[in-house]
Amino acid sequence: MQKPVEGFSKFTKEEKIKWLVDQYCDNPKEAGETLRRYWHQDPHVQKRHDEFIENTLSNYYLPFAIAPNFLINERLYAIPMAIEESSVVAAASKAAKFWLSRGGFKATVIGTEKVGQVHFLYHGDKNKLHAFFATVKESLIASAKPITKNMEKRGGGIKEIELRDKTHTTEGYYQLHCTFETLDAMGANFINSCLEQFADTLKDEAKEHKPFTDREKNIEVIMSILSNYVPNCLVRAEVSCPVSALGEDDIDPETFAKKMVQAVAIAKNDPHRAVTHNKGIMNGIDAVVVATGNDFRAIEAGVHAYASKDGHYSSLTHAEIDDGIFKFWMEVPLALGTVGGLTSLHPLVKLALEILQKPTAKELMQIVAVAGLAQNFAALRSLVTTGIQKGHMKMHLLNLLNQLGATEKEKETLVAHFKTATVSNASVKEALENVRNGHHD
Ligand code: MEV
């Protein structure tokens, strides 16, 4: 019977582990050993990881890989990816290589605007609120100067504060809708600090505002928080080539181009397909976002909201054949940072950014968008030709063999065997049994 715990965050790491494994694990000794086995050998590095979050017991490993040969705006990148799904890096690498000989990827940043909002209640004369806002706007900006000073020196800061009337949704509800330029920082802390300052200043100034009645003076702030929906922090990634240049051994270029356009059209119109289609894009996006220490939940939330911007959930990518040219492109909102956050703290994040030639946030937006586009191209290419399972299961083979406890020698034999045979759970099990019984050819 498990019991609640008091003051857990104050326990030492060993006390936490002991409490946990005794309460929840079938084999406490083994569970404790598993947690300790994944500690970093250098206690300083481990301490740094411990301090990222509360109640750290161990580290959770994800594979860190690179997809080489990405030609983006004439520059060649090896893109770091942190992801567990077997086929993602292979697919990205394949798409990179495909487009390397066809002019590579182009990427353009369309905007870098970040958003934050102060949500508040005001009960009274609307015109008086608008007049008050006009007089107080400069004070709001001035009150945040200590926070914005350094950002302004580098060319960023607050772009605009707008009063938005939301009373049609909730009685008395208004917003300060604020936009920011945060340069190479993702900017969440910067934005939230500015917003909380705006909220305080707004309340204080309202109390002193002579034309307000007592009721009107009493502005009630509900919350102040950045928005992860950033449709104006947008990047475009694209590829194009003559349809005739799309062919490879297994594919007739005209049929392939048409099927690609049809596959995208299906995802534009059918949400069931669109979600999976976009999930494939996020395979590429998230893997780079995680490897570079950015917030993949923020990116996921913002990208999916953007996929619904026209009133229904739709494909993020677009494809067309125009005068014999195949064009494939995507626009996605990506609020990313290359300074701050984990960027200088996590050794692998630091290295990932070095591998990417220390990109600015704008360059990282381009790289990440290209990784997403490449992933979608690779997925659709498989789907409209061989089907996805062939490549997927090939990549999954080692996982299946590891699950079955295959030795290195057995793995070698069976990887060779499955070069020409179909991988499935059953076929791998059977082939391993055959090898073990000496029946293998
Ligand atoms: C699997 O992780 C992603 C795919 O399902 C994407 C797609 O269907 O386009 C292959």
In short:
It holds the Pfam family HMG-CoA_red. 49% of the residues lie in helices and 18% in strands.
Observed structural traits:
binds (R)-mevalonate, HMG_CoA_Rdtase, HMG_CoA_Rdtase_sub-bd_dom_sf, four-stranded antiparallel sheet, globular, HMG_CoA_Rdtase_cat_sf, 3-hydroxy-3-methylglutaryl coenzyme A reductase, 3-hydroxy-3-methylglutaryl-coenzyme A Reductase, Chain A, domain 2, 441 residues, Alpha-Beta Plaits, NAD, 10 strands, alpha+beta, 49% helix
Number of domains: 4
CATH H-tier superfamily of the largest domain:
3-hydroxy-3-methylglutaryl-coenzyme A Reductase, Chain A, domain 2
Strand-residue fraction? Answer: 15-25%
Order of helices and strands: HHHEEHEEHHEEHHEEHHHEEHHHHH
Highest CATH level, the class of the largest domain: Alpha Beta
How far from one another are the termini?
54 Å
Mean pLDDT: 96
The main pleated sheet reads as: 4 strands, antiparallel
Based on secondary structure, the structural category is alpha+beta
Helix content: 40-55%
CATH topology of the largest domain: 3-hydroxy-3-methylglutaryl-coenzyme A Reductase, Chain A, domain 2
| CATH architecture classification of the largest domain | Alpha-Beta Complex
Beta strand count: 10
Order of the strands making up the biggest sheet: 3-8-10-9
Bound molecules: (R)-mevalonate
Pfam families: HMG-CoA_red (PF00368)
Family: Belongs to the HMG-CoA reductase family.
Enzyme class: oxidoreductase
Protein name: 3-hydroxy-3-methylglutaryl coenzyme A reductase
